[in-house]
Amino acid sequence: MTNKHFLRGLALIGLTTAALAQAQIRIETSGVGANQIPIAIAGFADEAIAPQQVTAIIKADLARSGYFKIIDTGNVMSETTAINYGEWKARGADALVVGSVQKLADGRFDVRYKLLDTVKTAQLSALALAAQPQSTRVTAHRIADDIYEKLVGNRGAFSTRIAYVTKAGKEYRLEVADADGEGTQVALRSNEPIISPAWSPDGTKVAYVSFEAKKPVVYVQDLVTRQRIVVANYKGSNSAPSWSPDGSKLAVALSRDGLTQSYVINADGSGLRRLTHTAGIDTEPQFSADGQSIYFTSDRSGGPQIYKMSANGGDAQRVTFNGSYNISPRVAPDGKSLAFISRREGRFQLFVLDLASGQEQRLSDTAKDESPSFSANGKYIMYATESGRRGALAVVSIDGRVKYRLTTQAGDIREPTWGPFMK
Known about the structure:
With 423 residues, this protein is mainly β. It is built from 4 helices and 30 strands. The chain folds into 2 domains: 3-17 and 160-418, Neuraminidase (6 Propeller), CATH 2.120.10.30; 34-152, Rossmann fold.
């Protein structure tokens, strides 16, 4: 691909995209081993009355994280069961999870749980959550989040959501699902491509690019009301929306004045302001975690590289120096690292760059990676890749030790974006 046409390549990557019906998760872990926390999760008392088996979801979440070794208990234990800590310690468990499910008079389910430390013979946490029948999965994810936070020390992201684009036949769909790929909902159907979805910071909206007008146009859609507005529909290409941390603005790439340049626009489509003024292509603008800077891809040095500039415009500093082709910058929630896609030896692979030290690490071993997106807690990166000539979503921890994939039985799935913590 020539430098002149790299933007076109970016826009067309992953346009053959598919349905996440019957999502299957394959978990590959490496390098964790002795670092895993052995945890026993007992069956919650009376959980069979709930639409979803709470303990199965908790176990799957914790196992997928790579931080836990799940010890099968074979027991049903409620939060009121008397605990023999020595017995569980002897079985190799450092922690024990117990709980129950009860149906309330109003039709909701009361889910209660306790997290117990078998070493210190103490209770670490307890929750009582009332959930609508359709929210049983979310409740289980929230319990897994609490366990993760209490034992690992970082906030869990199991109850966050993801958005992505699928293609079934000639139909493109923007879909939203739980972080584990379950609970899929369709936000938009179209016979034309949909690309570049991006979550709003409050998790209520998604910006994306749709080709339904026979050209790329940027929309923002409310996921609750399903109402949407056109944010950018200027002459030429309108692409690559990215939210400011406060949700008031979007950074976009527009070709309205010739070659593609980076702009900022209010989330309602007003107040367009141009950021870059070069004779090259400046695209894929992304706000920094504090909103003070913009990272973007530019070919001003001869090939696509990642640069950083003030959110108000002005001079830009080059960020990536290894390799001749670096694109798709994504900033970690804490602002300390940058995920990006680099082409080296003909392979497009996911890298992460420590912004303070300049040290980089390759996180993937595939060859057609694209669209990286950090989890809300910054501990994992989701990206699109290929598996058996079909699109799949892959997740890797930022240290590269934990890897798993979200694959479909048929078709492709692309363009992932990982949602924020929900309030």
